[in-house]
Amino acid sequence: MKYALIGCGRISPNHIVAAKTNNLDFVGLCDIMQENIHDKVVKFGLSKIPQYTDYKEMLEVEKPELVAICTESGKHAEIALNCIDAGCNLIIEKPIALSLADADEIIRKAKEKGVKVCANHQNRFNKSIQKIREALEKERFGRLFYGTAHIRWCRDFEYYSRASWRGTWEQDGGALMNQCIHNIDLLRWMMGNEIDEVVGMTDRLNHPYMEAEDLGIALIKFKNGAYGIVEGTTDIYPKNLEETLYLFGEKGTVKAGGQSVNKIEEWRFSDALDNPEDIIRMFGENPPNVYGFGHIPLYADVREAIENDREPYVSGEDGRRALELVLAIYKSAAEGKSVKLPLEACSAMDFSGRFGERKILS
């Protein structure tokens, strides 16, 4: 299967390793900055792979069957729609887009053209998350009461100074949209997806050089009667602390923790079908960074979805749901009131200027 990568920045090594592990036929590397391509060529031995600074030229010349989009978030939609027009299946890094209108158009056009779209929420493939999902699908929790997602990370001046688009409303959004959307996706997925209303608060406490928020807190009421809590920040000193997901039900309590919900840390069920100590020992991983090990199985799933003409495990619609929840938190925080779902129209750009001017990076 002919594969190409658009965007050779911070997350691209995970995609390159996943593509190579899944024996994809690498036909193109693209980035507007040639030095980004060079770094990956040297690191991963890709000197024979054609290199491009214009992705449209790459699509025309190489005609890839599968493309991964790893650019800044604000470019995802435009690139995705052009790739779909070229007949490419897609893996789109989170978030799928920065507006619901763009997400809807990606989903609509992909169906029209008969191609697959996967939103790159790779943490769904964590061993810990898969085990929790299995328990949920077997109804071991009984009635779900509530779940919580905590993302307590650090992003400093050096991180934002390396790319001027980071933390902007037009190209990125803030902590919730960038760093926290993976766990927000997991919470919504686990709690039944359908949401009644959201109450949110956001602020920019410690990053005057970004436009968007570095702290977001939200309460969520799901249509099934359960509740959710989101706490997400990049203000933790001096480094990433944890990312955790809790699920509380009438017959079960579970906690996934570690850097990126990659470890089961609590496992209690009334049915006593398994030994909690065994589960904690067996379903824990220790990835080198917060990106985890999920890209490889995500790529395997997408390849199989294309070959068997089925939806990917993480679909474009899933990506839209995660985006919608983040935007609902933004909207509630900006308006100072609860927001009902579904949202019909909303964009990160709707909140431009909310925290005032940012200090110029230098």
Automatic annotation (TrEMBL):
A single GO molecular function term of this UniProt record: 1,5-anhydro-D-fructose reductase (1,5-anhydro-D-mannitol-forming) activity
Key words, A-Z: Oxidoreductase
Keyword Ion transport: no
Domain of life: Bacteria
A Pfam family this chain is assigned to: GFO_IDH_MocA_C
EC number, UniProt record: 1.1.1.292
Transmembrane keyword on record: no
Residues in Gfo/Idh/MocA-like oxidoreductase N-terminal domain copies: 1-121
Limits of the Gfo/Idh/MocA-like oxidoreductase C-terminal domain: 133-341
InterPro entries attached to this UniProt entry: Gfo/Idh/MocA-like_OxRdtase_C, Gfo/Idh/MocA-like_OxRdtase_N, Gfo/Idh/MocA_Oxidoreductase, NAD(P)-bd_dom_sf
Stated family: Belongs to the Gfo/Idh/MocA family.
Name of this chain's protein: 1,5-anhydro-D-fructose reductase
Gene source species: Acetatifactor muris
